[in-house]
Amino acid sequence: MDKLIITCAITGAETTKEHNKAVPYTVMEMVEEACAAYKAGASIIHLHARYDDGSPTQDIFRYKEIIEAILNECPDIIIQVSTGGAVGMSIEERSDVLNLIPEMATLDCGTLNFGGDEIFVNTENNIIYFANKMHELGIKYEMECFEKGHIDMTKRLIKKEIIKPPFHYSFVLGVVGGMIGEERDFIFLKDSLPDDATYSVAGIGKYEFSLAELAIKHGGHVRVGLEDNIYLEKNVLAKSNADLVNKVVEIAKKYNRKIANPKETRKILKMEE
Ligand code: KMH
Ligand code: ZN
Question: pTM for the full model?
Answer without folding.
Answer: 0.98
